[in-house]
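Worked Example 4.2. Consider the chain below.
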Amino acid sequence: MATLLAIPILGVLLVLQMAVISRVPLLHGTPDLVLLVVIAWALQKRVQTAWRWGIIGALLVGFVSALPIWAVLLIYPAASAVGLALRRRVWHAPILAMFIATFVVTLLAHTISFLALRLSGGGLPPLQALNLVTLPAILLNLVIAIPTYYILADLAKWLHGREQKSLACHFLPQTALPRPQCRR
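Applying the procedure from the previous section yields the following structure tokens:
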């Protein structure tokens, strides 16, 4: 169920990112909503579909992006990997983990994008790319990281609480669960 929800959620966010968010840059940097959602989803405690969300996000962004597909397929699963690694290490402070992951992954994504554009013969000089694109994008991503984390935390709580309840109702005997929790 969580994997199926990734397609419409990430698709709507990608359209929002392309149509609205990209039109309001800070210098030349814009936030990456899909990247933030992949990171926030990977940081949730009970989520087991973080890799799938990273791959789905990469495929959706790769479909509409001018970047080579190999670059996009590196960036979004790497965001899942960083989120999952931080979830295991910084599990007492999830907002701190979200800030760290957002900073690291945005820097990594812009480095990969810069290298991909350089290999294809385009792009800005390195110092200009850092000052005009990467640093403003990091700032915007950090600002949007807090609401993104809490919205995804609510979604994960709703989704995984619902799945656990339905699985428990189907596989445990009726006497093992209180009546209000298991409605048939």
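Confidence is low (pLDDT under 50) at residues 164-168. The chain is about 75% helix and 0% strand. Compare this with Example 4.1 before moving on.
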